[in-house]
């Protein structure tokens, strides 16, 4: 999954971002509200971690701007203020959740998982298609009960396709989701990784789950 961390305390921003990357997320980061809106306008994110007290434009105003534009990306607010009024203000502005600094990193991970699965209508940490099962908490993938070993990037792309099963995804959408803004790669990188995934997921099975839609992209479905 691709996340945006908008936090003006640079050391905290760096720590959060590095810990999220170590947990398997693709992370872009910024340090003020204007930058946050620019990042959000330029890319697609599965969730946003947004500090309330940021320079230029506050986190609350960033959030209100997103919701006015009907951007439903899950947002978790970070706040140093432990008051009911501040929490109500954030939730009324459209936040999905909030954390009070300082916080335990495991709790941040758990809250991100809850937000993102709600966004795709899920109630558990698992995505299931036919006999293909992905557990986003343990980062494991099985097909027919057999565990499949995936690289971090293969997992990212498969997760995105599982979240959008039945929906045709263009190469541009997949690339934009699986890599952050620092990436400078080749034009066929998505095709290469889809080939890797097909070999691991489909080659040993009669029922193929990864399909090419000529001129449009790829779709994960049973038939």
How would you portray this structure in words?
40% of the residues lie in helices and 21% in strands. It has eight helices and eleven strands. The protein has helices at 10-22, 33-42, 59-68, 84-92, 105-119, 152-163, 171-178, 189-201, and strands spanning 2-6, 26-30, 47-51, 75-79, 97-100, 126-129, 132-135, 140-143, 146-148, 210-213, 217-220. A five-stranded parallel beta sheet has the order 2-1-3-4-5, sandwiched between helices. A four-stranded antiparallel beta sheet has the order 6-7-8-9, with helices on one face. It has a two-stranded antiparallel ribbon with strand order 10-11. The longest helix is centred in the middle third of the chain and has 15 residues, at 105-119. The radius of gyration is 18 Å and the shape is elongated. It folds into two domains: 2-119, 3-Layer(aba) Sandwich (Rossmann fold); 126-220, Arc Repressor Mutant, subunit A. By secondary structure, it is of the alpha/beta class.
Brief characterization of the structure:
With 223 residues, the chain is of the alpha/beta class. It has eight helices and eleven strands. The mean pLDDT is 90.
Features:
Rossmann fold, five-stranded parallel sheet, 21% strand, 11 strands, 223 residues, Arc Repressor Mutant, subunit A, elongated, alpha/beta
Q: How do the strands and helices of this protein lay out in sequence?
A:
Layout: E1 2-6, H1 10-22, E2 26-30, H2 33-42, E3 47-51, H3 59-68, E4 75-79, H4 84-92, E5 97-100, H5 105-119, E6 126-129, E7 132-135, E8 140-143, E9 146-148, H6 152-163, H7 171-178, H8 189-201, E10 210-213, E11 217-220
Parallel strand pairs: 1-2, 1-3, 3-4, 4-5
Antiparallel strand pairs: 6-7, 7-8, 8-9, 10-11
Helix pairs in contact: 2-3, 6-7, 6-8
């Amino acid at each position: 999954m691709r996340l945006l961390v908008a936090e003006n305390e640079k050391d905290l921003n760096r720590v959060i971002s590095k810990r999220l990357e170590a947990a398997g997320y693709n992370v872009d980061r910024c340090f003020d509200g204007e930058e946050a809106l620019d990042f959000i306008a330029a890319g697609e994110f599965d969730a946003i971690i947004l500090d309330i007290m940021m320079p230029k434009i506050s986190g609350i105003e960033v959030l209100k701007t997103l919701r006015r534009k009907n951007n439903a990306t899950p947002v978790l607010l970070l706040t140093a203020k432990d008051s009911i009024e501040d929490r109500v203000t954030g939730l009324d502005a459209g936040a999905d959740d909030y954390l009070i600094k300082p916080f335990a990193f495991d709790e941040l991970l758990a809250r991100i998982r809850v937000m993102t699965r709600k966004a795709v209508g899920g109630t558990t940490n698992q995505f299931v298609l036919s006999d293909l099962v992905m557990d986003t908490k343990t980062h494991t993938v099985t097909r027919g009960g057999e565990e499949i070993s995936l690289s971090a990037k293969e997992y990212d792309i498969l997760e995105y396709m599982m979240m959008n099963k039945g929906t045709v995804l263009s190469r541009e959408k997949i690339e934009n989701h699986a890599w952050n803004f620092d990436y400078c790669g080749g034009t066929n990188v998505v095709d290469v990784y889809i080939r890797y995934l097909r070999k691991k997921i489909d080659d040993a099975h009669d029922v193929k789950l990864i399909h090419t839609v000529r001129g449009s992209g790829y779709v994960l479905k049973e038939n």
